[in-house]
Amino acid sequence: MQVAVLLHNIAHPLGLQLSEMLQARLPCPKPKLIAFDQAEELLARGRMSMLVVVLSPFPDRALNLLRKIRLQTAGPVLAVGQASDSKLILRALHEGADHYLDEADLEKQLGSVLQRLQIKEEASRQPAGQVIGLLGASGGSGASTLAVNLAGVLARQLGRCALIDLKPGIGDLAALLDVKPTHNLADLCLNCGRMDQAMFESALAPHASGIHLLAPPLTYEDIRLVTAQGVGKTLHLARETFRFTVVDLEDCYHEEQLVVLRQAELILLVLRLDFTSLRSTKRILANLEQAGIGNERVQLVINRYGQAKELPLAQAEETLGRKIAFFIPDDPKIINAANNAGEPAVFRSPSAKVSQSIVQMANALVNPEDAKPSSVRQAVKSVNGWLAVFHS
Ligand SMILES: Nc1ncnc2c1ncn2[C@@H]1O[C@H](COP(=O)(O)OP(=O)(O)O)[C@@H](O)[C@H]1O
Ligand SMILES: [Mg+2]
Questions:
Q1: What is the band of 332 on the pLDDT scale with cuts at 50, 70, 90?
Q2: What is the pLDDT of residue 235?
Q3: Of 54, 221, 248, 298, which has the fewest beta carbons less than 10 angstroms from its beta carbon?
Q4: CB-defined site of ligand 1, < 6 Å
Q5: Which residue minimizes the CA distance to atom 19 of ligand 1?
Q6: C-alpha span between 79 and 60 (Å, rounded)
């Protein structure tokens, strides 16, 4: 990837600033700073993957150039200028800029535009694998327990399955599988620019079942290395390598979590039938909607189903305005024993009802037609886009 920054005078302070910011955020060599009067000639010689045009201090000249060079680039063109002049912004967009960035707020604006571009690019060349995110309505919902068991069933059925623990600092999937990862997500994020298939695979901790676990960083310094961009690239490589990638998510508002939520074919929102869990579920559904993540990709899973004094199902569905898709029974004896031993219940106690209900849920995801309506609600078979995707 090669990026060029076009500006009236390459000594303009915005040039250096942009060059450093772009280099820090993109997997590219140092961006080329090109003066307006050399731009046409230099761009004709080699294609750039992205152009940034600085409008100040001579916006007319810059827009003139933008019109001429726009067709020479297949990649995105960003215009940087003052935000106070709305006519200038419109003209820049009209001449072919894909995004307009306020020069007074570059750091923030560049970050969000690059992230949007990255997501768009990844979506357009999305490899075959599917991503299933698990999000607990609140801590203790059992999302991690379901994540390891679901990944275990998929790994056994398909030979292998990726499992990403996206809970920096607090993830416990390695303990639930009794594996000792030597690398983690922070190593990948730190080397994001040169991350490839081999590096991605070497960061995974293999489990006898065929699960390949990507552990989270656990130390303060390493946690801070996790970036949305690193997670996006990791997910892309996971899709290229595995038919299914299961992700244990932490929340629905940190950027690195949103990367997964935006891309996942299916989000399993795990809750219990109690007041606090329902309240939190409602809030999460609204927040996801606000983040542009359509609720049609979200399926609700009641975990620990059948506990004494839990709320009636009908009341829960009415409160949430949605049907529940899956029910996993409460079975502390089986689940605690499995979790404490570091062996997923679906392997340790395969005939237990709780294990079988997880297997049924996994089957419904892989083969929706075979789903038994008794434990897998009819709602799942409705015309949800993700089912078609899963079955293709
Ligand atoms: N179906 C279940 N039946 C009984 N106990 C469960 C079940 N699922 C999870 N648990 C227990 O609930 C607790 C929280 O589970 P965990 O998977 O760590 O939740 P989360 O990741 O959502 O915080 C653990 O003690 C676990 O053993
Ligand atoms: Mg957990």
A1: very high
A2: 95
A3: 221
A4: 136, 139-145, 303-304, 328, 330-332, 335-336, 339, 354
A5: 142
A6: 13
- Going by alpha carbons, the residue nearest to atom 13 of ligand 1 is 140
* Res 373 pLDDT > 70: no
d(C-alpha 154, C-alpha 106), whole Å: 44
Ligand 1: which atom is nearest the Cα of residue 303?
1
What are the distances in angstroms from CA 110 to CA 9, 17, 66, 217?
21, 11, 19, 27
Task: Please tell me the distance from the alpha carbon of residue 51 to that of residue 5, in angstroms, as a whole number.
Answer: 6
DSSP codes, 205-258: EE-TTSEEEEPPP-SHHHHTT--HHHHHHHHHHHHHH-SEEEEEE--SSSHHHH
170-205 residue pLDDT tens:
999 999 999 999 999 999 999 998 999 999 999 999
Per-residue pLDDT tens for 349-358?
A: 999 999 999 9
Residue 102 near residue 109 (C-beta atoms within 8 A):
yes
What is the per-residue pLDDT for 53?
Answer: 95
266 vs 135, 200, 239, 290, CA distance in Å?
11, 23, 14, 17
CATH architecture of 3-123: 3-Layer(aba) Sandwich (3.40)
pLDDT of residue 123: 58
Between 299 and 72, whose confidence is greater? 299
Reply yes or no on domain 128-391 having CATH 3.30.365.10: no
Atom of ligand 1 minimally distant from the CA of 329? 1
> What's the gap in Å between 144 CA and the centre of ligand 1?
7
**pLDDT score, position 121:** 67
Residue 391 predicted with pLDDT over 60: no
Closest approach atom of ligand 1 to CA 172: 18
Sequence ranges of the domains in the chain: 3-123, 128-391
Q: How buried is 204 (Cβ within 10 angstroms: 0-12 exposed, 13-18 middle, 19+ buried)?
A: buried
Same CATH fold, 128-391 and 3-123?
yes
